[in-house]
Specification:
The chain is α/β, with parallel strands linked by helices.
């Protein structure tokens, strides 16, 4: 070892860095010193120093040298006895390992990590499907696996505490012990109400489990995220995302929702929160028909102008909240015909199209036809990026409207066609 160290110190004073790098590459690739080194643009200093070390004469600007000759020259030097591997390690200041050893070390470390996760599953009497999920993650190296690896690197031992909390939450989902807001559930499983905040690594790991058990594909949007949470019995919260409903009946196992019925009797809108509808199993209307608008102002205007008690109207307030989705789902399941109208912009068309794809027999496009778009058009320009979102629409009417929108490149708003909405409701039979 002493000879190897002194030899390395000597080589560090010479112009042999490129030569030593080539020798290191051969050890990393093959685990032995083999092959030839070729440096075509060698400097005068490199040639002189390597000539002194090896006794070999090189061409003016070209070095061709077998690794074995270089090794033999060092072994015959004043530094002998020495070992070339030890020389390289000392020269570079760290232990050089082969690709095969690196891979084996990585696999051993991963196996130990997976084994530790299995230990946590066993200690917490985890369901068999949780073992299958972990196997799936390590086999397919998908998002949940990458999250665990990042957590291990950034949080070190804390990764196991996070995993344990996720497992606790997963058990509650599998045992149907949820039916609470996300923040409440997060606090229950970890002591931290922000443990499942959207975008956090702990939430993403929990979502990875949910996508596995519910056989859900990639989560592409915030709405997809909350929809998945709702599948697990977790709501955004109990009061956010309220939906205004008018002339609509909420049915529970013990009869009608009395608060909603009081509003119906007084011909007033009822503000339905997720808490209001958690126990609702059906939603009915007097004529099995309901009109849905996106805009609060449009909803308020129509309620003020109509006096037909039998017309049912709902306001979703833009993007569909968990509450709005559940209400529309229950309306469809109760065989109501749903006439949906949103703004004539890319986002409005996509919301309507998604509902149509989900409820093709109940969902009707209302005041979003090409002619309605022309009547509602504004001066607000739509960007190219937003227009590209219209390429995958399925509803025939919305596709026709999208073609006009791509040509006009302007948004259309419900406020601009209030009289058309009002006429539809006044003459509704």
């Amino acid at each position: 070892m002493e000879g190897s160290k002194k030899c390395a110190e000597y080589l560090l004073t010479k112009n042999v860095e490129r030569c030593m790098n080539e020798i290191k590459k051969r050890w990393v690739s093959y685990g032995r010193f083999t092959g030839k080194i070729t440096i075509l643009d060698a400097t005068k200093e490199e040639i002189n120093d390597l000539t002194r070390i090896t006794g070999i004469r090189f061409e003016r600007d070209k070095i061709k040298l077998s690794v074995k000759d270089f090794e033999n020259s060092l072994k015959e030097s004043d530094f002998a006895p020495l070992d070339l591997k030890e020389v390289i390690d000392c020269y570079f200041g760290y232990t050089i390992i082969t690709k095969n050893d690196l891979q084996r070390n990585k696999e051993d470390e991963e196996n130990r990590f997976q084994s530790n996760l299995y230990t946590i599953l066993k200690e917490n009497n985890a369901h068999e499907i949780l073992y299958e999920w972990v196997d799936h993650l390590f086999l397919n190296k998908e998002s949940g696996y990458r999250i665990l690896v990042r957590l291990k690197k950034e949080k070190q031992e804390k990764v196991f505490d996070i995993f344990k909390n996720v497992i606790f939450g997963a058990k509650l989902v599998l045992e149907n012990q949820t039916n609470v807001p996300i923040a409440v559930f997060a606090s229950r499983i970890s002591g931290n109400p922000h443990f499942l905040d959207k975008g956090s690594e702990s939430a993403n790991l929990f979502v990875s489990f949910l996508t596995y058990i519910f056989h859900v594909g990639q989560i592409k949007s915030t709405q997809d995220w909350y929809t998945l949470m709702e599948k697990a019995g977790l709501s955004k919260d109990e009061i956010a995302g309220c939906v205004a409903i008018y002339n609509v009946h909420l049915n529970r196992n013990d009869g009608f929702h009395q608060g909603c019925e009081a509003c119906y009797a007084y011909e007033q809108p009822f503000m339905a929160s997720y808490a209001n509808i958690m126990d609702v199993n059906a939603i009915t209307t007097d004529d099995n028909k309901v009109y849905v608008v996106e805009n609060e102002m449009v909803f308020s205007y129509l309620l003020k102008e109509i006096r037909n008690k039998h017309v049912a109207i709902i306001c979703t307030s833009g993007q569909l909240s968990t509450t709005a989705q559940k209400i529309i789902s229950l309306l469809a399941e109760s065989n109501n015909q749903i006439y949906y109208s949103g703004d004539c912009d890319p986002e409005g068309l996509m919301i309507c199209d998604k509902l149509f794809q989900k409820y093709p027999n109940q969902l009707h496009v209302w005041r979003m036809h090409p002619k309605d778009y022309q009547n509602s058009i504004s001066q607000e320009t739509i960007s190219e990026a937003r227009l590209r979102q219209l390429e995958n629409l399925e509803n025939v009417v919305l596709k026709q409207t999208a073609l006009q929108m791509q040509e006009m490149r302007k948004s259309g708003y419900q406020e601009n066609i209030l009289e058309y909405f009002l006429d539809d409701l006044k003459y509704d039979k």
